[in-house]
Amino acid sequence: MFDLNRIRSQFPALASGAVFLDNPGGTQIARQSLDAISAYLVECNANHGGEFATSRQSDARVDEARAAMADFLNAERPEEIVFGANMTTLTFSISRALARTFNPGETLVVTHLDHDANISPWLQVAEDRGMLVRWVDFNPADCTLDMESLKQALAEKPRLVAFGYASNAVGTINPVAEITRLAHEAGALVYIDAVQYAPHGPIDVQALGCDFLVCSSYKFFGPHLGALYGRYELLENLRAYKVRPAPSLPAGKFETGTGNFEHICGLHGALQHFEWFGETFGAPHLMALRQQYSGRRLLYKQAMYALQHHETDLSRALIAALGSVPGLKAYGILEPSRVRERVPTFSFTLAGHSPEEVARTLGEQGIYVWNGNFYALEVTTTLGLEAGGGLVRVGATHYNTLEEAEKLREALFKL
Q1: How far apart are CA 229 and CA 247, in angstroms?
Q2: Within 13 Å of residue 381, how many CA atoms lie on the same side as its CB?
Q3: Can you point out the beta strands (E) in 137-188?
Q4: Nearest to residue 101, comparing CAs of 135, 129, 142, 137?
Q5: Is 263 exposed, middle or buried (0-12, 13-18, 19+ CB in 10 A)?
Q6: How far apart are CA 29 and CA 397, in angstroms?
Q7: Is the pTM above the cut of 0.85?
Q8: At residue 84, what are phi and psi to the nearest 5 degrees?
Q9: Which of 1, 2, 275, 382 is the most buried (most CB within 10 A)?
């Protein structure tokens, strides 16, 4: 059983009393992550590769974080993990390296459901290399990806298909395993943006069979940092844009400049929060997990499945809350029976009030939400909402409560 008071005690910022429903833009940081950042800066703050104690300790902690991230994603080896400033920066870096291997007239596939960080890098590659771009549509009624549109795009045998694990605007979880299979059958590489999904569910890159997958630790209770998985042979063979003395090994050659070592340690701390969560609230009765995973990898998966159970209740509560407010129009999957097809990220408009006004009014009452397009420009454009200021977005995570969903309902109803 969940002990929400115990869970919330792991997040110092929650003591403020604010209702943090701005989580899709960045979660609050876990105590384990804060402690790891502080410990690094006090105990071994040094640059990489020195012949002295603090530098060796610094390198060891970065190696530990890389191994933990590989376990979290179930990568085959730590060398498949690349750290960077954020998902956007990592994607531009990898897309630039991949562009060397693409030819004029070839095709890239992107979707209208994605964050622009998994669209614009590929559009710029296409422009630079004289390539074609094929867009995959989504169904406005429930904001799910149009699989027929995808199959039509794949018929052109593209070089790469870029898509999201879950929409950062409307919460839809895409059928990533099926899309990956179809893309590979068409001969394409697969690049998955898992930023919005990583705080909410288990990821197994080996089971998916994807080529690249990227996420950001500030979306799963850590500091501002990005992490990318790439299949070892792809990272090994790609030519990185880097300075000449930089490492040539697969992960290191894409980590240009001095790394943000304290935040890498903070990412490890966020993953230690998941370890604690898996040990404390995990789902040991899921015997299938024990057949697939062991050790820390098992703890991570137990944590994510247990976390999903609570977030399912939160999603249903938010659907009910938003559905009770006159003049409110929510977007995406809204049937309670389908909540497992989405993460608890919801966007809406409220008649007679701009998204900015709604967000500001809620913020004045200590309820923090986002407004705008959240860099999901294609979503708000497709829905015809961009000119009107986009959407209001609320997003729950495992430290949120049913009472907070009710506070949101009351505040919106009053407005």
Answers
A1: 18
A2: 11
A3: 138-139, 144-145, 160-164
A4: 129
A5: buried
A6: 12
A7: yes
A8: -160, 180
A9: 275
From residue 69, how far is each of 12, 64, 105, 325, 397 by CA, in Å? 24, 9, 37, 41, 20
How far apart CA 50 and CA 145 sit, in angstroms, is 49
Which residues, 6 or more positions from 272, have their beta carbon under 8 angstroms from its beta carbon? 32, 33, 36, 68
Task: Specify whether the CB–CB gap between 161 and 167 falls below 8 A.
Answer: no
All structural domains of the chain: 4-30+295-414 (3.90.1150.10), 33-272 (3.40.640.10)
Q: Match 């590659």 to its residue by tokens.
A: 125
